[in-house]
Specification:
alpha/beta, TIM Barrel, Malate Synthase G, Chain: A, Domain 4, three-stranded antiparallel β-sheet, 15 strands, globular, binds acetyl coenzyme *A, binds ligand LL5AMS7Z, binds magnesium ion, transferase, Malate_synthase_TIM
Length: 542
């Protein structure tokens, strides 16, 4: 269906205008958001940036081949002067100067209302790690944000519980998809538009002016960058959107997640590429661990132990977070902490206290090291994190804490991690990967499993570890058994059976557990490391 020509008079378009085709129908509530002018913007951006996105994705593959041949990510000598020179990022808007606690969550209606009302300083509305990118989720998310920005968002559940916004909601930041994911339901000149361009452009087109009129602004979190040229691409896209919306250059503010191993060597370059609009960097630890496994997929000395042992205290992660703080504060940008996986546990006081204690320790470390704020997964964790940041911070942030004592070498950023691989760790990875992907294929991108928050990034670690352990001699259980395909196949079948017993036959048959297990088999048995689990996952959606 060519939505643009059906719904909007196409005679307003130039003869050589890009052809924009929606290959799925729009829900009634979304139609006002997809005006002809908005579709024209998608068309212009889709046509202009498709080649650059493709080229940058191709460069990712080439870099991976070099890592596979033995190279290790490093600081680039050709940008040394940029790292050495003194410069700072543009001033940070008033409503982004206090980011002690940020809550994150998918873009469903209840989540958005609860998060904005939660008492956190910021809400990161997530089209990425915590959202399954079904067309329905992506488009409903845009409708929900449109209503949230105008403060008209409300919801009455079937049980009568009513939700609406209170006074002083959290500041809104939106996270679009990463460069690897397309939005296959929107074709420009016959090619899918990049998912991130779609998410950002639809949100900004519909909300930038309204946000500015309220004294806030259009703010984004940018995920999964692997090179400063990808930051430069965002800079071009956002500059074009500002021109189209006739708003001042630099109005769209961004915070960038440093959540890939190559990016930690380019933090200055990324800050510089987005100098007029960047307000900070964030330690996206889960994707970072995944990226470490992916980059070193062929390096036998870099095999990681059980996921539970890879905490922020291990040398390579500690070095990354401290270097991020030092780099950001030198440039006048915020250094945001990340997400502890623990969430509140209902009905078991002792287990709940133990989970909260883990979160407390994580936030004490972050605040003590100089982070300006942190992420929480659940409203119940806001007071826990807020108390710690309130106690550590003299003002609204720690920009004045320069951390010039931090000296981090390239070797420290890639240091191998000691520890053990256990049967529980391997079985846990298989179990979590299946359960999570079953939920993801069902449209829910963030779930509690064994009292931990699981999302696309944590599931990537689970399946990547299984792949890595099968293929390296160091992938050996602590009792001496070798981890090979027959062992993994057997345990995966047993874990799938265990899931069936846990959820019951009816839920199992109605759910996507078998499809998820097949997907996990596909990626673990393939000798080529599939760069993102969500790519074959996306092929199975809609
Ligand atoms: C690696 C990364 O990218 S981290 C960023 C991505 N991850 C996230 O954003 C995590 C988001 N968090 C969540 O989705 C959820 O908290 C989960 C899945 C982890 C746990 O969900 P549940 O077990 O269903 O939570 P629980 O039942 O305790 O929820 C209690 C209430 O808190 C609300 N709530 C829970 N988490 C959030 C949140 N992040 N934002 C807003 N409200 C929330 C629920 O909607 C529920 O509201 P209600 O009482 O009005 O019905
Ligand atoms: O996006 C955050 C992460 O930890 O990954
Ligand atoms: Mg991430």
């Amino acid at each position: 269906m060519n939505q643009s020509s059906q719904q909007h008079p196409s005679d307003s378009l130039r003869a050589d205008a890009p052809e924009v085709e929606l290959v799925a129908s729009l829900p009634e509530a979304a139609r006002p958001l997809f005006s002809q002018a908005m579709l024209n913007l998608l068309g212009e951006l889709g046509r202009r940036y498709r080649p650059r996105v493709d080229a940058l994705l191709e460069q990712r593959e080439q870099r991976q081949q070099r890592f596979n041949a033995g190279e290790s990510p490093d600081f680039d000598p050709s940008t040394a002067s940029l790292r050495e020179d003194d410069w700072t990022v543009a001033p940070i808007p008033a409503d982004l100067r206090d980011r002690r606690v940020e809550i994150t969550g998918p873009v469903d209606r209840k989540m958005i209302i609860n998060a904005l009302n939660s008492g956190a300083r910021v809400f990161m509305a997530d089209f990425e790690d915590s959202s399954t990118p079904t067309w329905g989720n992506m488009v409903d998310g845009q409708v929900n944000l449109f209503d949230a920005v105008r403060r008209t968002i409300s919801l009455t559940q079937a049980d009568g519980k009513h939700y609406e916004l209170k006074q002083d909601p959290a500041v809104l930041i939106v996270r679009p998809r990463g460069w690897h994911l397309d939005e296959k339901h929107v074709l420009v000149d016959g090619r899918p538009i990049a998912g991130g361009i779609f998410d950002a452009a639809v949100y900004l087109f519909n909300n930038a002016q309204a946000l500015l009129q309220q004294g806030s602004g259009p703010y984004l979190y940018l995920p999964k960058l692997e090179h400063w040229r990808e930051a430069e691409l965002w800079e071009s896209v956002l500059t074009d959107i500002e021109k189209a919306l006739q708003i001042e250059p630099g109005t769209i503010k961004v915070t960038v997640l440093i959540e890939t191993l190559p990016a930690v060597f380019q933090m200055d370059e990324i800050l510089h590429a987005l100098k007029s609009r960047i307000v900070g960097l964030n330690c996206g630890r889960w994707d970072y661990i995944f990226s470490y496994i992916k980059c070193f997929q062929k390096h036998s000395d870099k095999v990681l132990p059980d996921r539970a042992q890879v905490t922020m205290k291990v040398p390579f992660l500690s070095a990354y977070s401290q270097l991020l703080i030092k780099t950001c504060h030198r440039r006048g940008a915020f250094a945001m902490g990340g997400m502890a996986a623990q969430i509140p546990i209902k009905g078991d006081e002792a287990a709940n206290e133990a989970a909260l204690q883990k979160v407390r320790e994580d936030k004490e470390r972050e605040a003590g090291n100089g982070h300006d704020g942190t992420w929480v997964a659940h409203p119940g964790l806001i007071p826990v994190a807020m108390e710690i940041f309130d106690r550590h911070l003299d003002g609204p942030n720690q920009l004045a804490v320069k951390r010039e004592d931090v000296q981090v070498s390239a070797d420290e950023l890639v240091a191998p991690c000691t520890g053990s691989i256990t049967e529980a760790g391997l079985r846990g990875n298989l179990n979590v990967a299946i359960r999570y992907m079953a939920s993801w294929l069902d449209g829910q991108g963030c779930v509690p499993i064994n009292h931990l928050m699981e999302d696309a990034a944590t599931a990537e670690i689970a399946r990547a570890q299984v792949w890595q352990w099968i293929r390296h001699p160091a992938g050996r259980l602590d009792d001496g058994r070798d981890i090979d395909l027959p062992l993994v196949r057997g345990w995966q079948a047993e874990e799938l059976e265990r899931i069936r017993e846990d959820v019951g036959d009816q839920v199992f048959s109605a759910g996507q557990f078998q499809a998820a297990a097949d997907l996990i088999t596909e990626v673990t048995e393939n000798d080529e490391f599939i760069p993102f689990l969500t790519l074959p996952g996306y092929d199975r959606l809609d």
